[in-house]
């Protein structure tokens, strides 16, 4: 598992707590910012809204979280493009 995490360049998990949710993550210095945004967005998705996890449909929860990851990825991609045009990146 450790080798797989290192190969991915980043890893995260999220949990709901009584006083709020928490996302823990690790990222290699070389990780792509877009990849990290996707992973963090995915984990935020797990602690946002209504989870779809059950014995029958655990994959639906992963797909639901992926939508948050995609939103984070696309948002950061757009921000970086705009910042690049403005000379800020
Ligand atoms: Zn997940």
Structural account:
This protein has three helices and two strands. The chain has one domain. The chain is globular, with a radius of gyration of 15 Å. β1 and β2 (20-27) form a beta hairpin. α2 packs across α3. Helix content is 55%, strand content 18%. It has helices at 2-8, 33-46, 58-85, and strands at residues 10-17, 20-27. It has a two-stranded antiparallel ribbon with strand order 1-2. It is of the alpha+beta class. Bound molecules: zinc ion. The site of zinc ion has 4 residues, from α2 and α3.
Task: Identify the notable features of this structure and list them briefly.
two-stranded antiparallel ribbon, 89 residues, 18% strand, binds zinc ion, 2 strands, alpha+beta, 3 helices
Q: How much of the polypeptide forms β-strand, as a percent range?
A: 15-25%
Number of domains: 1
Largest sheet: spatial strand order: 1-2
Q: Could you give the order of the helices and strands? A: HEEHH
How would you summarize the topology of this molecule?
Elements: H1 2-8, E1 10-17, E2 20-27, H2 33-46, H3 58-85
Antiparallel strand pairs: 1-2
The structure holds zinc ion.
The site of zinc ion has 4 residues, from helix 2 and helix 3.
In short:
The chain is about 55% helix and about 20% strand. The protein has about 90 residues and is α+β, with helices and mostly antiparallel strands.
């Amino acid at each position: 598992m450790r080798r797989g995490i290192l190969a991915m360049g980043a890893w995260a998990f999220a949990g709901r707590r009584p006083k709020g949710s928490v996302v823990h993550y690790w990222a290699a210095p070389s990780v792509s910012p877009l990849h990290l945004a996707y992973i963090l967005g995915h984990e935020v998705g797990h602690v946002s809204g209504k989870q779809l996890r059950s014995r029958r449909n655990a994959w639906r929860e992963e797909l639901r979280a992926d939508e948050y990851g995609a939103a984070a990825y696309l948002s950061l991609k757009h921000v970086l493009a705009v910042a690049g045009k403005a000379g800020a990146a």
